[in-house]
């Protein structure tokens, strides 16, 4: 293996407990308990398997290296070896954008691929492996990744042209077509989280182009949604979204929400977009029924803790979101630990179960 050269000028970072000469450790103390646990796990995994590799740079700030990131040109090592080549071929063939954090051993996209991609190659065993997520599954028919829906989904959602699977479009981390115990064709879209602190936030709310963020924070007395939404303003090609118009057709009712801050400024934004995509899939007969699943690690309690403005709706983000759904069962919730149990029970890929245990502690 030809080793990449370390950048000449870098700001190195280390774990607390590492020798001081390895870099700054202050950043590690700012992580929450789960982030610290998994950062240590991934850094140790890297050191155990590739001790010759130097630390890689964080995509958000090149030149700042961290012990849980692979160096440039080695991001393929982040994938489970049993299906590594198949994954890389699939991403290339389908023109799927790898997330910019693909070299980060804490990458959620990579985590999803490591857990689920093997079952794309073993559909015969996938029903057992995925039963913790899909209790009524009899047969898994197809699995796709970074799925953006049937033709027309981008226009229906009002999203800007020029995006692709995994980039600048609403993309499900995974999509599973399956048959239930009654023989019905089903589709479940999956949003996969690993060490994230929340389910994403509204890019329009955070955008520098949004010069009137006060409109997102305060609705006029008696006003109905949307709150003068920047994403529907038409100020540029990226602000022509149709999300608000599609809520009713997707069975989303904002009446229970009592806050002044736009309900989609925080974690509901990503849940809403995936729910709308599932609704469009159902409308276009991509399956008899379509729903949406949130998969995350049970140990990551920070992810599912609702922000203050949503706490009146439920004790978790998932509970709060279900309060807005005409059919609460359209949101499935599953933890990665349970999926690992299903993977072991399947009997296929015995080395995968061992890999996931060492890699992710499941």
Per-chain topology:
Elements: E1 11-12, H1 26-29, H2 33-49, E2 56-57, E3 64-66, H3 84-93, H4 108-120, H5 123-129, E4 137-147, H6 153-157, E5 172-180, E6 185-192, H7 203-206, H8 214-217, H9 243-246, H10 268-283, E7 289-296, H11 317-322, E8 331-335, H12 336-346, H13 350-360
Parallel strand pairs: 1-3, 6-7, 7-8
Antiparallel strand pairs: 2-3, 4-5, 5-6
Helix pairs in contact: 5-12, 12-13
Describe the model.
The chain is built from 13 helices and eight strands. The protein has helices spanning 26-29, 33-49, 84-93, 108-120, 123-129, 153-157, 203-206, 214-217, 243-246, 268-283, 317-322, 336-346, 350-360; strands at 11-12, 56-57, 64-66, 137-147, 172-180, 185-192, 289-296, 331-335. The protein has 362 residues and is of the alpha/beta class. The protein is globular. Helices cover 31% and strands 13% of the residues. Strands 4-5-6-7-8 form a five-stranded mixed beta sheet, sandwiched between helices. It has a three-stranded mixed beta sheet with strand order 1-3-2, with no helix packed on it. Helix 5 (123-129) packs across helix 12 and helix 12 (336-346) runs antiparallel to helix 13 (350-360). The longest helix is centred in the N-terminal third of the chain and has 17 residues, at 33-49. Among the domains are: 11-73, no CATH class; 108-201 and 266-360. A hairpin with a 4-residue loop joins strand 5 and strand 6 (185-192).
């Amino acid at each position: 293996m030809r080793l990449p050269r370390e950048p000449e000028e870098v700001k190195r970072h280390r774990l607390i407990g590492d020798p001081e000469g390895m870099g700054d450790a202050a950043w590690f103390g700012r992580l929450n308990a789960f982030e610290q646990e998994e950062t240590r796990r991934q850094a140790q995994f890297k050191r155990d398997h590739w001790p010759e590799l130097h630390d890689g740079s964080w995509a958000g700030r090149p030149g700042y290296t961290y012990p849980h990131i692979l160096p440039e040109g080695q991001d393929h090592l982040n994938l489970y070896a049993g299906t590594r080549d198949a994954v890389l071929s699939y991403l290339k063939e389908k023109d799927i954008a790898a997330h910019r954090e693909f070299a980060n051993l804490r990458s959620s996209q990579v985590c999803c691929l490591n857990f689920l991609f093997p079952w794309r190659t073993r559909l015969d065993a996938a029903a057992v492996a995925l039963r913790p997520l899909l209790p009524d599954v009899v047969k898994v028919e197809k699995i796709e990744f970074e799925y953006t829906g049937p033709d027309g989904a981008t226009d229906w959602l009002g999203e800007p042209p020029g995006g692709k699977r995994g980039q600048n479009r609403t993309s499900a981390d995974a999509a599973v077509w399956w048959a239930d115990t009654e023989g019905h064709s089903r589709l479940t879209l999956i949003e996969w989280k690993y060490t994230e602190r929340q389910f994403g936030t509204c890019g329009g709310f955070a955008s520098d182009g949004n010069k009137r963020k006060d409109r997102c924070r305060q609705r006029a007395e008696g006003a109905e949604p949307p709150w003068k939404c920047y994403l529907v303003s038409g100020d540029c090609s990226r602000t022509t979204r149709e999300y608000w118009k599609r809520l009713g057709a997707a069975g989303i009712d904002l009446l229970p929400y009592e806050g002044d801050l736009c309900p989609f400024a925080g974690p509901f934004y990503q849940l809403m977009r995936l729910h709308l995509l599932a609704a469009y899939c159902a409308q276009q007969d991509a399956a008899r029924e379509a729903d949406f699943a949130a998969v995350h690690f049970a140990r990551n309690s920070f992810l599912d803790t609702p922000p203050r403005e949503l706490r009146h709706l439920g004790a978790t983000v998932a509970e709060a979101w279900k309060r807005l759904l005409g059919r609460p069962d359209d949101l499935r919730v599953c933890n990665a630990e349970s999926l690992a149990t299903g993977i072991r029970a399947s009997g296929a890929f015995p080395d995968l179960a061992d890999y996931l245990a060492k890699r992710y502690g499941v």
